[in-house]
Write a structure and sequence with these properties.
The chain is 74% helix and 0% strand. With 421 residues, the protein is mainly α. The chain has 2 domains: 2-114 and 280-381, no CATH class; 117-265 and 409-420, no CATH class. α8 (133-150) crosses α9 (152-160), α11 (176-194) packs antiparallel against α12 (198-207) and α20 crosses α21 (356-371). Residues 1-7 and 412-419 have low confidence and may be disordered.
């Protein structure tokens, strides 16, 4: 097992060197042009069409956070440069769906209703798990206690190095034992934040540390932010957004450092930790510089449904499908060594399947189509469907788990009304 980890580390270092080798040869990085264009676009939408910007956050948030903000850390730490071609592709694929939605709403002259915060909070009051969150926390701690008592060796491993546990589960295709609890706890935590039960939400947030994935640690904060913005059609004050970003980045960096130390590695600076975590810009630049447009010829789209079927339920699921088709074409030696670098799949999948121009257009059209239902009152007035669909647009697994979670309704509200009568 240690040999596999060591091999993956070597592969990671070698691919990082390849990424750096494909840094653009120029004095000025076009990444800052990308930042300038996206900042100007955000300001224009904020002042002239704030509702469209707010409703587009479920599909905007990830590229803005991973490629723009994360790309900034990667660029500063590594003095990395991208070409103007890469910058324009990222800009068009980030904002293309928003432009199409704007045109659609301008033609229809559609007015979007605001969902009052009290409406969502009232609905959550009738949810069995949210209403009994104290019992749920006690039950969770009880299960953890049983795990500690019955499996002392495993429990020490979980508490000492949760990241290593995740790596082992990944090698055995058993990530579902991390993914499901991580998404479930993240969803509940975000809803507790929305209900202003921050202490209980934070307690669940802490438990996510033991998933060994930094993504799940800050996921509840992001989900809470998305739900608040999309429902109210308003953004928090700039100071609050800055605090949110700063706290998220700090949690992300500290958890990364803790995971690194727990694996026996030397601690590194926060900027280096952030740069190594947000290497999506380097991976996507490598994809474009290798001219990988159209290399899968639609195979990713034809096999993408396999992503939603856990291997534990489908043991014969193919090893190569979806994003791994790109790895098979571009970096077969890394794939064979069980190391899968990120090319930022939300963009690269479309470009690999359909080519440059068609890839940009198809993604923009597809994302705008699935975003449009959030504008209609038929969705916004159905609280369970609205919350689940908002989360689904950001992460399909989170949306599905949240829909199931919100289906556990109790009789609290009905009994309360009868009592009042």
């Amino acid at each position: 097992m240690q040999l596999n980890f060591f091999n993956n580390l070597l592969m990671s270092l070698n691919f990082t060197n390849n990424i750096m080798a494909h840094s653009a040869i120029q004095n000025f990085s076009s990444f800052y042009i990308l930042i300038f264009l996206s900042l100007c676009t955000s300001i224009i939408f904020y002042f002239f069409s704030k509702s469209i910007l707010a409703l587009s956050m479920p599909i905007l948030f990830d590229p803005l956070f991973q490629l723009h903000l994360g790309g900034l850390f990667f660029t500063l730490e590594n003095n990395f440069k991208i070409s103007i071609k890469v910058a324009l592709i990222i800009y068009l694929m980030t904002w293309g769906p928003v432009f199409l939605v704007s045109i659609f709403l301008f033609i229809l002259k559609k007015k979007v209703i605001v969902i009052e915060k009290v409406q969502i909070k009232s609905y959550l009051e009738d949810n069995f798990i949210i209403r009994n969150i104290n019992k749920f926390l006690i039950f969770t701690l009880f299960l953890m206690s049983i795990l500690i008592i019955k499996n002392l060796d495993l429990s020490k491993f979980i508490f000492n190095s949760p990241r290593n546990l995740y790596n082992i589960l990944s090698l055995t295709n058993s990530q579902i034992f991390i993914t499901l609890p991580g998404i479930f706890l993240s969803s509940i935590s975000s809803l507790l934040y929305f209900k202003e039960k921050r202490i209980k939400g934070f307690l669940l947030n802490i438990l996510l540390f033991f998933t060994g994935k930094k993504y799940y640690i800050f996921l509840p904060i992001f989900l809470f932010f998305l739900l608040r913005v999309v429902s109210s059609l308003k953004f928090p004050k700039i100071s609050k957004i800055f605090i949110l970003l700063l706290s998220s980045i700090t949690i992300f960096a500290i958890s990364g450092i803790v995971f690194s130390i727990s694996q026996g590695n030397q601690p590194i600076s926060i900027l280096k930790q952030l740069a190594s975590s947000f290497d999506y810009l380097g991976g996507f630049n490598y994809f474009v510089s290798m001219n990988a447009f159209g290399i899968t010829d639609g195979e990713i789209a034809r096999t993408s449904y396999l992503f939603y079927i856990p291997r534990i339920f489908y043991p014969d699921k193919p090893e190569i499908y979806g994003l791994t088709l790109i790895h098979e074409r571009l970096v077969p030696d890394l794939l064979e060594a069980n190391y899968s670098p990120s090319f930022y799949s939300d963009f690269s999948n479309y470009l690999a399947d359909y080519g440059l121009i068609k890839g940009i257009l198809i993604r923009s059209f597809q994302k705008s189509i699935i975003l449009i239902p959030l504008f209609f009152k038929e969705i916004r007035n159905r609280t369970k469907l609205f919350i689940s669909y908002t989360y689904f647009l950001y992460n399909p697994y989170v949306g599905i788990i949240t829909f199931l979670l919100l289906s556990f309704k109790g009789k609290y509200t009905r009994n309360k009304k009868l009592k009042n009568k």
